Amino acid sequence: xxxxxxxxxxxxxxxxxxxxxxxxxxxxxxxxxxxLYAALMxxxxxxGESIPDNGDLGFTVSSLFPYFQKExxxxxxxxxxIPMQTxxxxxxxxxxAKKIKKVQWVDSTLYSSILSGEPxxxxxxxxxxxxxxSYITQQELAEDANGSREFIRSEVxxxxxxxxxxxxxxxxxxxxxKILFRNYSGFYFIAEGDSDLLExxxxxxxxxxxxxxxxxxxxxxxxxxDTLTIDLPQKANHQxxxxxxxxxxxxxxxTLMQSDHVSxxxxxxxxxxxxxxxxxxxxxxxxxxxxxSVFSKEPEADSTxxxxxxxxxxxxxxxxxxxxxxxxxxxxxxxxxxx
Length: 339
Prior knowledge:
single chain; alpha+beta; nine-stranded mixed sheet; four-stranded antiparallel sheet
């Protein structure tokens, strides 16, 4: 049995999470660990905290995952990413395939069975009967007025860009997709390491907001700490990423790939530098493995967090004076048995 420290974020304002295309009309529904870490580091720098030369603040965080909470004093239901699988489920009822395809998250109370090697879908309806929209849980998620149990919803609103203060040019409308949470639900993340420094940064971040469009009031939140207990298998032949993961070396990656059960997806990380006067320059780009990716377990691995922190500052004379642009690819890993 392992107990993890977690932080619950209850958003008091809408949230917009840009993808790599910076499309305001579409918002992502999660924030990855490297984005969260970068935001926390920025807050510490603003408070005058010394940033280590290697970018390691002494803590590791997971990506943000959803939790459902019906009332202010209700017990929350925490969700974790569904493990990626190389094998398709052999369904007795083929009509369930479309329903299964929507599933992204699993209740943490069911996670122990999955980590121990029990298949999610197959010759039993244990998990099929627990599917509620994109979630698997034995707890009943409240329905909205339309009968949906999704507690994270998108709402598109129209805004206007004024091209000229003189009024000579026409106003240009555009659309913003904002994320809203039903009831007292929100996001949470797992943290390992120096909680004092993390909480110091989190207090400032809650007032500055996270995501895009913070200048118009998006992304503000309140936070509280809690614990999450998961029964982990004593012996495991694979490991599951809970953060965006960048391998330490080609040799490590080769070791992690040595299994027919390895399954993963990845995303390109980069974007624009946000520090003035370098805003017109792009960061270097790197690919990271997404949470839910499954890898072989390294022999004699004695840490739950693996990966590396990389500097994405571009190699050009125009930004030589800029500070390092750290992208944290260290991931919290959970052991998982696959057969």
